[in-house]
Amino acid sequence: MRPFSEIKRGSAGVTQRVLTQSLRRLERDGMIEKHVLPTSPVGVECRISELGESLRAPFGYLYDWTVTHSATIQANQRAYDASHQPR
């Protein structure tokens, strides 16, 4: 389980509102489980559900593919941008 504050710290550039909305959608889809802690102020912890865990391997393959091909993708983007400059 990870406290909400820890998740927020690891999500640089994401507002608390957007993070909260995203976590609610993931909870609604069954990808995470949220637990409210009886503390003052109220704390929240999130954990990846069994369904969410089932995505670890497919996303791992996608990550590996992206790392392997990132230099080629960036070169293609530069070539495209150079050829589509306004004249």
Write the layout of secondary structure elements.
Blueprint: E1 2-3, H1 4-9, H2 16-29, E2 32-37, E3 43-48, H3 50-53, H4 56-83
Antiparallel strand pairs: 1-3, 2-3
Distinctive features:
87 residues, alpha+beta, Arc Repressor Mutant, subunit A, three-stranded antiparallel sheet, 4 helices
Description:
With 87 residues, the protein is an alpha+beta fold. The chain folds into two domains: 1-54, Orthogonal Bundle (Arc Repressor Mutant, subunit A); 55-87. Helix content is 60%, strand content 16%. It contains four helices and three strands. It has helices spanning 4-9, 16-29, 50-53, 56-83, and strands spanning 2-3, 32-37, 43-48. A three-stranded antiparallel beta sheet has the order 1-3-2. β2 and β3 form a beta hairpin. The longest helix has 28 residues, at 56-83. The mean pLDDT is 91.
Summarize the structure.
This protein is α+β, with helices and mostly antiparallel strands.
**Cα end-to-end separation:** 54 Å
Q: Mean of the pLDDT scores?
A: 91
- For the secondary structure, the number of strands is 3
Strand order of the largest sheet: 1-3-2
Per the principal axes of the C-alpha atoms, what is the gross shape?
Answer: elongated
Number of domains: 2
Could you tell me the radius of gyration in angstroms? Answer: 19 Å
- Assigned CATH superfamily of the largest domain: Winged helix-like DNA-binding domain superfamily/Winged helix DNA-binding domain
Could you give a short account of the major beta sheet?
A: 3 strands, antiparallel
- Compute the number of helices: 4
Please give the CATH architecture of the largest domain. Answer: Orthogonal Bundle
**Could you list the spans in which at least 5 consecutive residues all have pLDDT below 50?**
none
CATH class of the largest domain: Mainly Alpha
Structural class: alpha+beta
Q: Which percent range fits the helix content?
A: 55-70%
The fraction of residues assigned to DSSP E strands is: 15-25%
How is the CATH topology of the largest domain named?
Arc Repressor Mutant, subunit A
Write the H/E string, N to C.
EHHEEHH
